[in-house]
From TrEMBL:
EC number, UniProt record: 3.2.1.21
UniProt enzyme class: hydrolase
Family: Belongs to the glycosyl hydrolase 1 family.
Family annotation (InterPro entries): GH, Glyco_hydro_1, Glyco_hydro_1_AS
Protein name: beta-glucosidase
Keywords: Glycosidase, Hydrolase
Biological process according to GO: carbohydrate metabolic process
Amino acid sequence: MLGDRLPGFTAEELSVVRGSSSFFRLNTYTSELVEEGGSDELSGNVKTTFIRPDGSQLGTQAHVPWLQDCPSGFRAVLNYIWKTYSKPIFVTENGFAAKSDMVLPFPDVLRNVDRVKYFRGYTADLAAAIKPDGVPVKSYFAWSLL
């Protein structure tokens, strides 16, 4: 994406860096469908959407426009990382901003149906990535302000 605007590595630097990682750390919240043709270089010059070709949504819309729940995408990215890098995975951040967080009393926020659905789906697909898929996920941290 940035091509020749970034400095390259020397052969010596490449030999030091290549294969030096012992794990993969992942912060993830959602999945999107992607197609070429975007004009924002920072986003990789692609168009993203939460709408499937059949017109259905990928998941439940969160309070923020960039987030919908899509647990199958979480399982897919865990499998992709394992197959691509063959390193154990530490999920260091994952969560959902529910639409009602700003208006509900705190005890009701804890029982938020959309958030519960999100975490049930994501932890179920996390478990499926571990067994039967065999992805070595070593940790999972849900995002919180605590």
